[in-house]
Amino acid sequence: MRWILIIIFCWGVGYIQAQEARPVVTLMTWDEASMMALKEYKIVFVAVGVAPGDKEAKRLLANEAVQLFLSRNAIGIGMDMESEEGRFFEQKLLKYPWPAYAFFMPYGDLLAIVPVAELAGNPERLLDTGREALEKAKIKRSNSRSVVFREEKWEDLLAEAESSDRLLFVMGTDRENQAGLLMEKNVLNLDEVADFYNRHFINTVLDVSGQTEIMAKYGVTCCPFWLFLNGEGKLVLKAEGGLNEKEFIELGRLALTKAAGIVFEESTPDVLMEKAGREGKNVFLELYVPAGTERKQLEKKVLRDPEVAAFFATHFISGSYDMLQEEGKVLREKYTVVLPQTFCFTDARGNLLHEVGSVESADELIAEARRVVEGNGLAAMREKYGKGERTADFVEEYIGVLGRAGRVEIANEVAGAHLSALGGNCLKQRKYWDIYSAYVVDAFSDLFDYVREHREELGELYGQQVVDGKIRELWRAGVGSFVKETEQGAKFDEAGYKEYVKRMKKEKVDGWRNIAREARMEIAEKTGDWRTYTELAEERWNEENVPEAELYAWGVKINENCRDKSIRFKAARWFALAAVEMEKKERLSGKVNLTSYKGFFEKLVDELIQ
Fold first, then answer.
1. What does pTM read for this prediction?
2. Of 436, 360, 434, 447, nearest to 404 (Cα)?
3. For burial by CB atoms within 10 Å, which of 63, 104, 306, 578 has the most?
4. What is the rounded CA–CA span in Å between residue 571 and residue 559?
5. Average model confidence (pLDDT) for the chain?
6. How far is CA 160 from each of CA 229, 280, 376, rounded to the nearest angstrom?
């Protein structure tokens, strides 16, 4: 126990007061002081690089209040920074300059430090630093967990973020930055921080020493930096510099908020538009039917994309409405929505500026939204077309906009007129064939006659299967022309329909029976003939492998539009049988199919038999 008896100022710092049991600074080594501090539940006080015999040091450490504080709370040592031990010890200073007075946890973390030059013999400043160190030590002693940083490959971490639907949190460091080192010692090892980041994020450290491409890619200029990335590697949020515990947790919460994507207001459309008017923005309305996995994928891949969220926050007030609920129904009727998933863009007065159906990517949705911002939405293009604008580029762009909005009848009309003016031979050019293939659904035009007459020639250009498929599509579309809207409602030309079916049979149209039946179902829907609709639907269900989404759509239409109890009961039976079959398959396989429509089918059964 030699070091207990060593006199404090052998190296020139001063004399111990007689009433103290141990000097405030001893000749212990760092390891010895750490062990003693650990046993006595104290911290370690280090006079770092303070010269032996320094008069200011003697006066400072002879101060009665300083001696009392240190003797009660710390094990003190001096550290010669020119010695081998001092050179090893320097890394514990986390880039702070010396000479200084520093307080440490036993065996490790720097708690607080004050340079000698800033003290000017002021004992109160040293006491304040010591009290700060004690508070930090108290917090550290009550914490036992740290943020867990993963070391897998970057690509694997992003893949896991994508599959688990979490963000990748990246701590960028060059291992030489003081702010980052301090956060590692004093923030990342706090329980509340650790629990929050380990629960919500996949965490990794990126050492950017000698690397600039990552910093340039994400627009960061200094270390430490903090990145939150989605599974595609897109930046959700970034920050730079040191943060305290509260700031760091708030940063994570902000990242989670931004990762949620477009902010949809939970209010009525009227309130939405009032807010848009006050803020000088337009309105974005997501109108949807909640079925299957399509919307979940759209939400994950598009609506939650950080670039989409940022663009829409700047230019729009957004709302999302289920078209099976009251407010959604009103909006569907107001804007004559025809697709189960439609994005409507309006001004603050509710005037429709633009609309689009399904989009495949974030870039597509931003491009459609930018049309509105630039005044080139569907409404503006329709106005130009109505005023006689017929340049080829404009018309072809307009056709695409109509098609993406689901306005197939108008797209068919505009595309048919455009191509007819060019003549049937234009279809031998890929650009015009693509327009015809995508948008024209007129089975009574000269263009359709041309396609049938030149079937093999066009097949050589685009593939026979493609051309034959388009021909079948137009035969199918032609059946729908036998329903006309009148003031008294939809009127079915049954005689014309039968003649058309005979014509398909005579020309040996592939699958003419199915074409006729599917078209007759649509006619029954338009005319409100739900008995015929249900009978034909049941035929299809018994004879074909009908996709779950299509079957569900049938049920929704019957549920919303048909009041006949016998018809509703028949439809309910389909969904009850389908749900039972799904349940049976799950039991046999031992796996629950999270993408099935079983839950939707069961809900429909309840609604249909009410």
1. 0.65
2. 360
3. 104
4. 9
5. 88
6. 12, 40, 40
Q: Report pLDDT for 372.
A: 97
Q: Where are the beta strands (DSSP E) in 459-563?
A: 483-486, 489-492
578, 601 in Cβ contact below 8 A? yes
DSSP string, 38-85: HHTT-EEEEEESPPTT-HHHHHHHH-HHHHHHHHHHEEEEEE-TTSHH
- The closest alpha carbon to 47, from 64, 68, 23, 65, belongs to 23
Q: What are phi and psi of 179, to 5 degrees?
A: -60, -40
Give yes or no for a contact between 17 and 67, defined as CB atoms under 8 angstroms apart. yes
Q: 499 φ, ψ to 5°?
A: -65, -40
Q: What is the dihedral of CA 416, 418, 424, 427, to 10 degrees?
A: -90
- Partnered with residue 365 across adjacent β-strands are none
Distance CA 460, CA 458 (A): 5
In this prediction, residue 312 has a pLDDT band, given cuts at 50, 70 and 90, of: very high
Structure-token match 């994570």, residue found: 252
Phi, psi of 323, rounded to the nearest 5 degrees: -75, 0
In this predicted structure, the answer to whether residue 294 has a pLDDT above a threshold of 70 is no
Tell me the per-residue pLDDT of 227-246, one tens digit each, with 9 for 90 and over: 999 999 999 999 999 899 99
Contact 269, 350 (CB under 8 A): yes
Report the distance separating Cα 315 and Cα 219, nearest Å: 23
With CA atoms as reference, report the closest residue to 179 among 187, 168, 169.
187
The beta strand positions in 417-501, using DSSP E, are 483-486, 489-492
Q: What is the pLDDT of residues 571-581, one digit of tens each?
A: 899 889 888 88
Q: Is it the case that residue 140 has pLDDT exceeding 90?
A: no
